[in-house]
Write a structure and sequence with these properties.
Blueprint (H helix, E strand, L loop, with lengths): L15 H9 L4 E2 L1 H14 L4 H16 L10 H10 L9 E6 L2 E5 L5 H19 L1 E7 L8 H8 L3 E10 L19 E6 L7 E6 L5 H10 L8 E2 L5 E2 L15 E2 L5 H16 L14 E10 L6 H16 L15 H13 L1 E2 L2 H13 L11
Parallel strand pairs: 3-4
Antiparallel strand pairs: 1-12, 2-3, 4-11, 5-6, 5-11, 6-7, 8-9, 8-10
Protein backbone atom coordinates (compact mmCIF):
# COMPACT_ATOMS: atom_id res chain seq x y z
CA UNK A 1 0.00 0.00 0.00
CA UNK A 2 1.03 3.60 -0.55
CA UNK A 3 -0.73 4.67 2.65
CA UNK A 4 1.53 5.95 5.40
CA UNK A 5 0.80 6.68 9.03
CA UNK A 6 -0.19 10.31 8.56
CA UNK A 7 -3.83 11.15 8.99
CA UNK A 8 -5.90 12.08 5.90
CA UNK A 9 -6.40 15.81 5.54
CA UNK A 10 -3.13 16.80 7.24
CA UNK A 11 -1.63 19.95 5.70
CA UNK A 12 0.87 19.87 2.83
CA UNK A 13 4.42 19.43 4.03
CA UNK A 14 7.84 19.24 2.47
CA UNK A 15 9.16 16.65 4.90
CA UNK A 16 12.79 15.63 5.22
CA UNK A 17 12.10 12.62 3.03
CA UNK A 18 10.56 14.80 0.34
CA UNK A 19 13.40 17.32 0.51
CA UNK A 20 15.94 14.53 0.09
CA UNK A 21 13.92 13.20 -2.82
CA UNK A 22 13.94 16.59 -4.50
CA UNK A 23 17.68 16.99 -4.09
CA UNK A 24 18.54 13.55 -5.43
CA UNK A 25 16.20 13.37 -8.44
CA UNK A 26 16.06 16.30 -10.80
CA UNK A 27 14.04 14.55 -13.52
CA UNK A 28 12.34 11.53 -11.97
CA UNK A 29 10.79 8.80 -14.08
CA UNK A 30 7.88 7.00 -12.49
CA UNK A 31 6.61 3.54 -13.35
CA UNK A 32 3.11 3.91 -14.77
CA UNK A 33 1.65 1.17 -12.56
CA UNK A 34 3.03 2.83 -9.42
CA UNK A 35 1.67 6.14 -10.63
CA UNK A 36 -1.77 4.65 -11.22
CA UNK A 37 -1.89 3.43 -7.65
CA UNK A 38 -0.67 6.75 -6.29
CA UNK A 39 -3.33 8.70 -8.19
CA UNK A 40 -6.00 6.18 -7.21
CA UNK A 41 -5.15 6.38 -3.52
CA UNK A 42 -4.97 10.20 -3.58
CA UNK A 43 -8.50 10.34 -4.97
CA UNK A 44 -9.72 7.66 -2.57
CA UNK A 45 -8.26 9.71 0.30
CA UNK A 46 -10.24 12.65 -1.08
CA UNK A 47 -13.39 10.49 -0.69
CA UNK A 48 -13.93 9.54 -4.34
CA UNK A 49 -15.61 6.12 -4.75
CA UNK A 50 -13.37 3.34 -6.06
CA UNK A 51 -14.74 3.37 -9.62
CA UNK A 52 -14.40 7.13 -10.01
CA UNK A 53 -10.92 7.20 -8.43
CA UNK A 54 -9.79 4.42 -10.76
CA UNK A 55 -11.18 6.01 -13.92
CA UNK A 56 -9.65 9.41 -13.17
CA UNK A 57 -6.24 8.07 -12.12
CA UNK A 58 -6.00 5.69 -15.07
CA UNK A 59 -7.04 8.35 -17.53
CA UNK A 60 -4.43 10.80 -16.26
CA UNK A 61 -1.65 8.20 -16.41
CA UNK A 62 -2.73 7.05 -19.88
CA UNK A 63 -2.57 10.69 -20.99
CA UNK A 64 1.02 10.91 -19.74
CA UNK A 65 1.85 7.61 -21.45
CA UNK A 66 0.65 9.14 -24.73
CA UNK A 67 3.03 12.05 -24.19
CA UNK A 68 0.39 14.68 -23.42
CA UNK A 69 1.98 15.73 -20.13
CA UNK A 70 0.10 19.04 -20.04
CA UNK A 71 -3.17 17.14 -19.45
CA UNK A 72 -2.09 14.17 -17.36
CA UNK A 73 -0.97 13.84 -13.75
CA UNK A 74 0.02 17.50 -13.78
CA UNK A 75 -3.61 18.10 -12.75
CA UNK A 76 -3.52 15.95 -9.58
CA UNK A 77 -2.72 18.95 -7.31
CA UNK A 78 -5.36 21.03 -9.10
CA UNK A 79 -8.02 18.36 -8.60
CA UNK A 80 -7.12 18.05 -4.92
CA UNK A 81 -7.52 21.83 -4.50
CA UNK A 82 -10.83 21.71 -6.36
CA UNK A 83 -12.14 18.97 -4.08
CA UNK A 84 -11.17 20.96 -0.99
CA UNK A 85 -12.75 24.13 -2.34
CA UNK A 86 -15.97 22.31 -3.20
CA UNK A 87 -15.65 22.84 -6.93
CA UNK A 88 -15.34 19.08 -7.46
CA UNK A 89 -17.78 16.91 -5.53
CA UNK A 90 -15.85 13.63 -5.32
CA UNK A 91 -18.87 11.45 -4.52
CA UNK A 92 -21.13 12.94 -7.22
CA UNK A 93 -22.43 10.68 -9.99
CA UNK A 94 -23.21 12.07 -13.47
CA UNK A 95 -26.80 11.45 -14.55
CA UNK A 96 -28.73 11.42 -17.81
CA UNK A 97 -31.25 14.27 -17.64
CA UNK A 98 -32.52 14.18 -21.21
CA UNK A 99 -32.58 11.27 -23.66
CA UNK A 100 -34.22 10.67 -27.01
CA UNK A 101 -33.05 7.76 -29.15
CA UNK A 102 -29.49 8.42 -30.32
CA UNK A 103 -29.08 11.61 -28.25
CA UNK A 104 -28.64 12.34 -24.58
CA UNK A 105 -27.65 15.11 -22.20
CA UNK A 106 -25.72 14.32 -19.04
CA UNK A 107 -25.52 16.51 -15.93
CA UNK A 108 -22.02 16.01 -14.56
CA UNK A 109 -23.24 17.14 -11.11
CA UNK A 110 -19.76 18.65 -10.53
CA UNK A 111 -18.18 15.20 -10.38
CA UNK A 112 -14.63 14.76 -11.65
CA UNK A 113 -14.80 15.96 -15.24
CA UNK A 114 -12.86 12.96 -16.51
CA UNK A 115 -15.46 10.65 -15.03
CA UNK A 116 -18.29 12.68 -16.56
CA UNK A 117 -16.59 12.55 -19.98
CA UNK A 118 -15.94 8.83 -19.53
CA UNK A 119 -19.66 8.33 -18.86
CA UNK A 120 -20.61 10.39 -21.92
CA UNK A 121 -18.22 8.58 -24.26
CA UNK A 122 -19.42 5.19 -23.06
CA UNK A 123 -23.06 6.18 -23.63
CA UNK A 124 -22.33 7.72 -27.05
CA UNK A 125 -20.57 4.53 -28.13
CA UNK A 126 -23.50 2.40 -26.98
CA UNK A 127 -25.93 4.61 -28.87
CA UNK A 128 -23.68 4.61 -31.92
CA UNK A 129 -23.83 0.83 -32.04
CA UNK A 130 -27.59 0.81 -31.52
CA UNK A 131 -28.69 3.69 -33.74
CA UNK A 132 -25.72 4.18 -36.08
CA UNK A 133 -24.84 7.46 -34.41
CA UNK A 134 -24.69 8.54 -30.78
CA UNK A 135 -24.52 12.17 -29.71
CA UNK A 136 -24.11 13.00 -26.03
CA UNK A 137 -23.55 16.36 -24.36
CA UNK A 138 -22.31 17.04 -20.84
CA UNK A 139 -23.19 20.10 -18.79
CA UNK A 140 -22.23 21.13 -15.24
CA UNK A 141 -18.92 19.41 -15.86
CA UNK A 142 -15.49 19.91 -14.32
CA UNK A 143 -12.17 19.75 -16.21
CA UNK A 144 -12.10 16.68 -18.50
CA UNK A 145 -8.39 16.80 -19.36
CA UNK A 146 -7.21 15.90 -22.85
CA UNK A 147 -9.65 14.60 -25.44
CA UNK A 148 -7.21 12.16 -27.05
CA UNK A 149 -7.96 9.14 -24.88
CA UNK A 150 -11.72 9.66 -25.01
CA UNK A 151 -11.69 9.80 -28.80
CA UNK A 152 -9.46 6.72 -28.97
CA UNK A 153 -11.90 4.76 -26.81
CA UNK A 154 -14.58 5.40 -29.47
CA UNK A 155 -12.16 4.45 -32.24
CA UNK A 156 -11.25 1.24 -30.42
CA UNK A 157 -14.91 0.24 -30.76
CA UNK A 158 -14.56 0.42 -34.55
CA UNK A 159 -16.32 3.76 -34.76
CA UNK A 160 -15.49 7.31 -35.82
CA UNK A 161 -15.23 9.66 -32.87
CA UNK A 162 -15.79 13.43 -32.75
CA UNK A 163 -15.48 15.61 -29.66
CA UNK A 164 -15.72 19.31 -28.84
CA UNK A 165 -15.11 21.02 -25.55
CA UNK A 166 -15.62 24.50 -24.12
CA UNK A 167 -12.62 24.96 -21.85
CA UNK A 168 -12.23 28.23 -20.06
CA UNK A 169 -12.26 29.98 -16.73
CA UNK A 170 -14.85 32.68 -16.11
CA UNK A 171 -14.27 35.45 -18.64
CA UNK A 172 -12.54 33.05 -21.01
CA UNK A 173 -8.85 32.38 -21.52
CA UNK A 174 -8.36 33.26 -25.19
CA UNK A 175 -8.58 36.42 -27.24
CA UNK A 176 -10.37 36.40 -30.61
CA UNK A 177 -8.26 36.73 -33.74
CA UNK A 178 -6.93 40.29 -33.76
CA UNK A 179 -8.15 40.97 -30.20
CA UNK A 180 -6.14 42.01 -27.14
CA UNK A 181 -8.39 40.71 -24.35
CA UNK A 182 -9.68 37.24 -23.47
CA UNK A 183 -13.36 36.60 -24.03
CA UNK A 184 -13.63 33.00 -25.25
CA UNK A 185 -12.40 29.64 -24.06
CA UNK A 186 -9.33 27.81 -25.39
CA UNK A 187 -11.60 25.16 -26.85
CA UNK A 188 -10.14 21.80 -27.93
CA UNK A 189 -11.38 19.56 -30.72
CA UNK A 190 -10.80 15.83 -31.02
CA UNK A 191 -11.52 13.32 -33.78
CA UNK A 192 -10.40 9.87 -34.81
CA UNK A 193 -10.95 6.98 -37.22
CA UNK A 194 -10.03 3.30 -36.88
CA UNK A 195 -7.32 1.77 -39.05
CA UNK A 196 -6.40 -1.88 -39.59
CA UNK A 197 -2.73 -2.84 -39.34
CA UNK A 198 -1.61 0.71 -38.64
CA UNK A 199 -2.39 2.74 -35.51
CA UNK A 200 -5.65 4.68 -35.79
CA UNK A 201 -5.77 8.35 -36.61
CA UNK A 202 -6.50 10.14 -33.34
CA UNK A 203 -6.21 13.90 -33.02
CA UNK A 204 -6.70 16.24 -30.06
CA UNK A 205 -5.93 19.87 -30.75
CA UNK A 206 -6.38 23.01 -28.75
CA UNK A 207 -7.78 25.86 -30.78
CA UNK A 208 -5.29 28.03 -28.89
CA UNK A 209 -1.74 28.23 -30.21
CA UNK A 210 -0.69 26.26 -27.14
CA UNK A 211 -2.71 24.70 -24.34
CA UNK A 212 -2.63 26.41 -20.95
CA UNK A 213 -1.10 23.28 -19.45
CA UNK A 214 1.98 23.74 -21.64
CA UNK A 215 2.37 27.28 -20.38
CA UNK A 216 2.06 25.96 -16.81
CA UNK A 217 4.79 23.38 -17.42
CA UNK A 218 7.10 26.12 -18.74
CA UNK A 219 6.27 28.22 -15.67
CA UNK A 220 7.10 25.33 -13.35
CA UNK A 221 10.37 24.71 -15.21
CA UNK A 222 11.30 28.40 -15.17
CA UNK A 223 11.46 28.45 -18.95
CA UNK A 224 10.42 31.01 -21.53
CA UNK A 225 7.69 30.32 -24.08
CA UNK A 226 7.43 31.36 -27.75
CA UNK A 227 6.17 34.94 -27.88
CA UNK A 228 3.28 34.07 -30.22
CA UNK A 229 1.56 31.77 -27.67
CA UNK A 230 -0.03 34.27 -25.29
CA UNK A 231 -0.61 37.93 -24.54
CA UNK A 232 0.12 39.65 -21.23
CA UNK A 233 -2.41 41.62 -19.20
CA UNK A 234 -1.89 44.66 -21.43
CA UNK A 235 -2.65 42.61 -24.55
CA UNK A 236 0.97 42.45 -25.72
CA UNK A 237 2.84 39.32 -26.88
CA UNK A 238 5.10 37.88 -24.18
CA UNK A 239 7.57 35.04 -23.75
CA UNK A 240 7.19 35.11 -19.96
CA UNK A 241 4.63 32.55 -18.71
CA UNK A 242 4.33 34.53 -15.44
CA UNK A 243 2.92 37.41 -17.46
CA UNK A 244 0.03 35.11 -18.45
CA UNK A 245 -0.77 33.00 -15.39
CA UNK A 246 0.25 31.88 -11.90
CA UNK A 247 0.98 28.32 -10.73
CA UNK A 248 -2.42 28.39 -9.02
CA UNK A 249 -3.97 28.85 -12.49
CA UNK A 250 -4.98 32.49 -12.06
CA UNK A 251 -5.02 33.87 -15.60
CA UNK A 252 -4.56 37.56 -16.29
CA UNK A 253 -3.29 37.42 -19.87
CA UNK A 254 -4.87 35.78 -22.91
CA UNK A 255 -4.10 32.81 -25.13
CA UNK A 256 -4.06 33.33 -28.86
CA UNK A 257 -5.89 31.17 -31.45
CA UNK A 258 -3.77 28.95 -33.66
CA UNK A 259 -3.85 29.49 -37.40
CA UNK A 260 -5.08 33.05 -36.97
CA UNK A 261 -8.65 33.34 -38.35
CA UNK A 262 -8.94 29.59 -39.00
CA UNK A 263 -8.28 28.53 -35.42
CA UNK A 264 -10.49 31.35 -34.23
CA UNK A 265 -13.40 30.03 -36.32
CA UNK A 266 -12.91 26.50 -34.96
CA UNK A 267 -12.80 27.87 -31.41
CA UNK A 268 -16.08 29.71 -31.89
CA UNK A 269 -17.76 26.56 -33.19
CA UNK A 270 -16.36 24.40 -30.38
CA UNK A 271 -17.72 26.77 -27.74
CA UNK A 272 -21.14 26.83 -29.37
CA UNK A 273 -21.26 23.01 -29.49
CA UNK A 274 -19.57 22.29 -26.15
CA UNK A 275 -20.81 25.29 -24.19
CA UNK A 276 -24.09 26.59 -25.58
CA UNK A 277 -25.66 23.43 -27.06
CA UNK A 278 -25.11 21.53 -23.80
CA UNK A 279 -26.56 24.36 -21.71
CA UNK A 280 -23.23 24.96 -19.94
CA UNK A 281 -22.97 28.46 -21.36
CA UNK A 282 -20.15 30.46 -22.95
CA UNK A 283 -17.11 31.47 -20.93
CA UNK A 284 -17.57 35.25 -21.26
CA UNK A 285 -20.58 35.28 -18.92
CA UNK A 286 -20.19 36.41 -15.32
CA UNK A 287 -22.06 33.34 -14.07
CA UNK A 288 -19.85 30.88 -15.97
CA UNK A 289 -18.38 28.24 -13.66
CA UNK A 290 -14.91 27.10 -14.72
CA UNK A 291 -15.11 23.71 -16.36
CA UNK A 292 -15.84 21.99 -19.64
CA UNK A 293 -19.06 21.83 -21.57
CA UNK A 294 -18.43 18.70 -23.63
CA UNK A 295 -20.04 17.10 -26.67
CA UNK A 296 -19.17 13.72 -28.18
CA UNK A 297 -20.40 11.92 -31.30
CA UNK A 298 -19.78 8.26 -32.10
CA UNK A 299 -20.50 7.08 -35.66
CA UNK A 300 -20.87 3.38 -36.46
CA UNK A 301 -18.82 2.79 -39.61
CA UNK A 302 -20.77 -0.34 -40.53
CA UNK A 303 -23.95 1.68 -41.09
CA UNK A 304 -22.20 3.13 -44.16
CA UNK A 305 -19.54 0.66 -45.28
CA UNK A 306 -18.21 -2.74 -44.28
CA UNK A 307 -15.84 -2.14 -41.33
CA UNK A 308 -13.02 -4.32 -42.68
CA UNK A 309 -13.24 -2.59 -46.05
CA UNK A 310 -13.13 0.78 -44.31
CA UNK A 311 -10.10 -0.20 -42.25
CA UNK A 312 -8.30 -1.50 -45.35
CA UNK A 313 -9.01 1.68 -47.29
CA UNK A 314 -7.86 3.85 -44.38
CA UNK A 315 -4.61 1.86 -44.13
CA UNK A 316 -4.03 2.23 -47.86
CA UNK A 317 -4.66 5.95 -47.70
CA UNK A 318 -2.30 6.42 -44.76
CA UNK A 319 0.37 4.33 -46.50
CA UNK A 320 0.14 6.60 -49.55
CA UNK A 321 0.38 9.72 -47.38
CA UNK A 322 3.42 8.38 -45.52
CA UNK A 323 5.17 7.43 -48.76
CA UNK A 324 5.48 11.04 -49.93
CA UNK A 325 9.12 12.21 -50.04
CA UNK A 326 10.01 14.37 -47.04
CA UNK A 327 11.57 17.79 -47.04
CA UNK A 328 15.10 18.34 -45.65
CA UNK A 329 13.72 19.15 -42.19
CA UNK A 330 11.52 16.07 -41.84
CA UNK A 331 12.63 12.50 -41.08
CA UNK A 332 9.24 10.84 -41.44
CA UNK A 333 5.65 11.73 -42.21
CA UNK A 334 3.48 10.75 -39.26
CA UNK A 335 -0.23 10.10 -39.07
CA UNK A 336 -1.77 11.84 -36.01
CA UNK A 337 -1.74 9.24 -33.25
CA UNK A 338 1.43 7.42 -34.35
CA UNK A 339 3.69 9.45 -32.10
CA UNK A 340 1.45 8.81 -29.09
CA UNK A 341 1.53 5.05 -29.70
CA UNK A 342 5.33 5.08 -29.88
CA UNK A 343 5.61 7.28 -26.81
CA UNK A 344 3.37 4.88 -24.85
CA UNK A 345 5.63 1.93 -25.66
CA UNK A 346 8.69 3.89 -24.57
CA UNK A 347 7.18 5.20 -21.36
CA UNK A 348 5.67 1.88 -20.34
CA UNK A 349 9.18 0.49 -20.62
CA UNK A 350 11.26 3.35 -19.20
CA UNK A 351 8.84 5.25 -16.94
CA UNK A 352 7.02 8.56 -17.22
CA UNK A 353 9.32 11.60 -16.88
CA UNK A 354 8.32 14.61 -14.81
CA UNK A 355 9.83 18.06 -14.49
CA UNK A 356 11.29 18.52 -11.00
CA UNK A 357 8.78 21.14 -9.87
CA UNK A 358 5.83 19.32 -11.40
CA UNK A 359 6.69 16.10 -9.59
CA UNK A 360 7.22 17.98 -6.34
CA UNK A 361 3.67 19.36 -6.47
CA UNK A 362 2.39 15.78 -6.77
CA UNK A 363 4.63 14.68 -3.90
CA UNK A 364 3.23 17.47 -1.72
CA UNK A 365 -0.34 16.63 -2.68
CA UNK A 366 0.20 12.99 -1.73
CA UNK A 367 1.70 14.05 1.60
CA UNK A 368 -1.27 16.32 2.27
CA UNK A 369 -3.63 13.32 2.27
CA UNK A 370 -1.26 11.02 4.18
CA UNK A 371 0.35 9.05 1.37
CA UNK A 372 3.84 7.86 0.69
CA UNK A 373 5.27 8.39 -2.77
CA UNK A 374 6.62 5.62 -5.05
CA UNK A 375 10.35 5.75 -5.60
CA UNK A 376 11.39 7.02 -9.02
CA UNK A 377 13.06 4.67 -11.47
CA UNK A 378 15.98 6.96 -12.27
CA UNK A 379 17.16 10.55 -12.38
Amino acid sequence: SLICGRSPGCPPSRSKVHSTFKQRFKMPKIDHNRLRELGFEIYRALEAPEEIARVVADYQVDTNLAGHDSHGCLAIPRFARDVRSGKIIPTAIPEVVREDGPTALINGNRSFGMYSAHTAVKLASEKGKKFGIGAVGVTNCNHVGGLWGFVKSVVDEGMIGLMWCSAGPRGGSMAPFGGMRRVMAGNPIGFGVPGKSRPPLVTDISTATAAGGKVLIALQKGEKIPDHWVLDEAGQPTSDPEAFMTEDLEIFGAMRPFGEHKGYALALFAEVIGGILTGYGPAYRDDYIEGNGTFVIAIDVERFIDLDTFRTEVDGYFTAVKSVPTDPHTDEILIPGEMECRTRIERERDGIPFAENTWQTIVDTAASVGLEVPAPLQE
